[in-house]
């Protein structure tokens, strides 16, 4: 891995909140840096489903150009409130307390970070939320060298669908030895 060890202040704040809350499913640095790099190529509205402690949004905000906007939804109201405080001085991030579907009103998105497992399984919904050329990022896959991908002795049909759906051009990327993600661009 060759990446600077420094992380943006806004990301450090979100990681502090993760530690305080004992929240262990925050986005790892490698994914965060990828989100920031992709965000830098975007305009308009970027979104995240499942805010957690705000780490993903913080990385997105560190890369997104001026004039773009990031909306993120968190189901847990107390967590959403804490992250709203965290981003109080960050102009381009809006944290919404509620189900991910509350963000539908802000679509179409130029980038959508899907970090709620059940939503990854609804490819039709995500296809409708993206603008043409919009990018979906789906996290937390277990790397598999098989095709179709096999995890725990079963075909990972969600991943298979994402990598073969004709509405998207998609690629799976290894993020670490134990984790991969999918980048899918809406045609
Ligand atoms: C993997 S964590 C998110 C991590 C975060 N995206 C990050 O970058 O660090 C998933 C989050 O989704 C939230 N969540 C679960 N179901 C949800 C739903 N239906 N709508 C919105 N958020 C949801 C959980 O409360 C949890 O905080």
Q: Which helices and strands occur, and which strands form pairs?
A:
Layout: H1 9-21, H2 29-39, E1 45-49, H3 55-63, E2 69-74, H4 77-86, E3 93-97, E4 109-114, H5 117-120, H6 123-129, E5 130-141, E6 150-151, E7 154-155, H7 157-164, E8 168-176, E9 179-186
Parallel strand pairs: 1-2, 1-4, 2-3, 4-5
Antiparallel strand pairs: 5-9, 6-7, 8-9
Helix pairs in contact: 1-3, 2-3
Measure the end-to-end span: 31 Å
- Written as H for each helix and E for each strand, in order along the chain, the element string is HHEHEHEEHHEEEHEE
CATH superfamily: Vaccinia Virus protein VP39
Radius of gyration: 16 Å
From the structure above, extract its key features.
187 residues, alpha/beta, Rossmann fold, 7-stranded mixed sheet, two-stranded antiparallel ribbon, 7 helices, 33% helix, binds S-adenosylmethionine
Detailed description of the structure:
This protein is an alpha/beta fold and 187 residues long. The chain has a single domain (9-186), classed as Vaccinia Virus protein VP39 (Rossmann fold), CATH 3.40.50.150. 33% of the residues lie in helices and 29% in strands. It contains seven helices and nine strands; from the N terminus they run ααβαβαββααβββαββ. The chain has helices at 9-21, 29-39, 55-63, 77-86, 117-120, 123-129, 157-164, and strands spanning 45-49, 69-74, 93-97, 109-114, 130-141, 150-151, 154-155, 168-176, 179-186. The strands form two sheets. A seven-stranded mixed beta sheet has the order 3-2-1-4-5-9-8, with helices on both faces. A hairpin with a 2-residue loop joins strand 8 and strand 9 (179-186). Helix 1 runs antiparallel to helix 3. The model has no long low-confidence stretch (mean pLDDT 96).
